[in-house]
Amino acid sequence: MIKFLDLKKITDSFAPSVTEAINRVVTSGWFLQGEETAAFEKEYAEFIGCQYAVGCGNGLDALTLIMRAYIEMGVLKPGDEVIVPANTYIASILAITENGLRPILVEPDPATCQISPKNIEAAITSSTKAVMIVHLYGRCAYSEKIKEICTSHNLKLIEDNAQAHGCLYHGRRTGSLGDAAGHSFYPGKNLGALGDAGAVTTNDPVLAVTVKSLGNYGSAKKYVFRYQGRNSRIDEIQAAVLRIKLPRLDADNLQRTRIAKRYLSEITNPAITMLPEAPEGENVYHIFTVFTPHREELQKYLADNGVQTLIHYPIPPHKQECYKNKNVFSFPVTEKIHREELSLPISPVMTEEEVSEVIRLLNEWSI
User: Fold this and answer.
1) pTM for the predicted model, two decimal places
2) Is the pLDDT of residue 327 over 80?
3) Is the distance from CB of 246 to CB of 47 less than 8 angstroms?
4) Do residues 64 and 103 touch, judged by C-beta distance below 8 A?
5) What does residue 180 show for φ and ψ, rounded to 5 degrees?
6) Are 109 and 141 in contact (CB under 8 A)?
C-alpha cells in the first residue's frame, strides 16, 4: 500500500533526535510555558520573518485568538464582516463565527483555487473590517492586489497559514505577509507536531501580548485576569519536537516540490485536471490535488491498486449542517471544487518508485 501520508516513516526519519528531545522535556520536569516553548517561538518567528510568534493549542485556536484579540483591542466588534474564501476548511470560518463576526464567503479563482481579488473587492461593504486569505493546499494566496485592496479600505489582512509552512512570496514567507497569521502544527502538516499545536505570528506587539494573554486564561500575570480567556497553550514536548523538525522544513518542502513536478509533467491522462504550477517557491505542496467528475471511481480504482488517497474536502462549509441557516447562497465554483477534488500521496518520505507507480496508474485509468 502506498500511504497517503506515512506519519510513522516521517517521524522515524527524525530519529533519534525526536526521542532525545522528548526525553529532555520529561527529565526536566517542566511541561508547560518553559524554555522549549520560548525557544520555539523565537526560532519560528525568525523562520517566518516576524517579530513575534505565540504558541497555542492548535490552528483553529490560533485563528480564533487573532479575531478575539482584535475585538479586545477595539479593532473589530461583533457583527463586523470578515471576507473569507468559500472553498476552505471549516476552521477558517469557525474562528470568525465563534467571535460573533460575520463571514462573507467569496468564490476562488478556478484556475488556482485561491481567493479572487476581484471577488474580495466586490464583497466589501461598510461593515467589512478584515480579509482572511487561506494558503490552500500549500499554495500562496497573497498578492499585491489583495494588499492594495486591504490598505485602501483600511482592512486587516489575516492569513490562514495552516497548510503552507515555508511557502514564499517574492522571498518572504507566508505568515509574514499580512497583519497576523494562524498556523497549525497538526501531525499531518508540512511542519507537524506529535499532537495538536498551533501558533500566531505578527509584527504587532499589542496583538502578540493580547493573544498570549487570551490563550493563558486571559492572564499576563499569574492570578491576574484582564480578559475572560481560554486555555490554549503549546506544551513543552510539542515545542521540543517542532524545534527538531523546523531546520529540515525547507529541504522537506523541496522534496514535495520535486514529486509535484513529476506529477505535473508525467500525468497525461486527459480525464484528469491539475492546477497549473505556481511561481518558484510559492507552493509547498501540502496537498497535491487532481480533479475529475468521476472522483469516486478514480479513488476506488487507486485503492484497489494499493494507493491511498483523500478528499479535501467532500462538503464545502456553506453546505455543512452547522451553517445551514447562516448562508443560503450558492457558490458553484466552490461546489465544483469540492465535488471533483482528489488528493494524491505526497510527502518527503515517498520513494521515486512509489511516485512512478501513482503516475502509471493514473495514466492507465479510464472511465
Assistant:
1) 0.97
2) no
3) yes
4) no
5) -160, 160
6) no
